[in-house]
Amino acid sequence: MANLFLKQAKQYVATRPSYPPELFDFIACKTPRRDLAWDVGTGNGQAAASLAKLYKAVVGTDTSAQQLAYAPPLPNVRYVHTPADLPLAGIHDAVAAPCSVDLITVAQAFHWLDLPNFYAQARSVLRPGRGVLAAWCYTEPRVGAAVDAVFWRLYHGSEPHWAPNRRMVDDEYRGADFPFDPVDGEAHTGPFEFSTERRMDLEDYLMYITSWSAYQTAKDRGVELLDEATVHELEAAWGGDAKEVKTVTYPIFLRIGKVRAQE
Description:
The chain has helices at about 10-15, 20-30, 45-50, 65-70, 90-95, 115-125, 145-160, 165-170, 200-210, 215-220, 230-240; strands at about 35-40, 55-60, 75-80, 105, 130-140, 190-200, 245-260. Strands 3-2-1-4-5-7-6 form a 7-stranded mixed sheet. It has about 260 residues and is an alpha/beta fold. Strand 4 (about 105), helix 6 (about 115-125) and strand 5 form a beta-alpha-beta unit.
């Protein structure tokens, strides 16, 4: 998975949406303690930075050293570059001791994980009966009818270049195997819906598209998704003024649960 993002690390930082405080407040209120959080697939540390405001200590791990290079240094956040095949003993050594983690988060990376292996790691480090796992994704942006119509034609045309795992995002994580109990006060594990906004001009919007793993995969295959005709269509749909800044909305879908008591 890390290799898909090596060439786009800078664009990823520049164009990806941030996550709203309401999302983190909702998650944090479901953890009885706030001593230690582990952010899996932390990338540029976006979620870890928000968690650092709510938890005493945060560990952010990622398989991409290039992404971690853009993560902000914070006094209570420790970033760890981990290989994809790190064994459980390595998790205990590099990340957290058994039964010591209050919260595990996976922001926009859940669909890349080997879930059975990851769940075994999660159950090992989460506090029994109290530790919480929260995984969320955002789906494609909404701007307005004209821009969205061009965008969805482009997105559907990009489908052959996405990794199969991407279908979990298109499904909003609804069909994902999630063997955890509902957190206190909730009747199910989600998805719970949130949204986030970003202000973008057309250049920003196009750069977001170039940050897709599918964009780079297509380019490596000799296919330019943002061909001249598509760019002209987007320019027209934007209203003719590429410098105009628009509000771009990203829907967010959260699965959240706690470790089952018998585990």
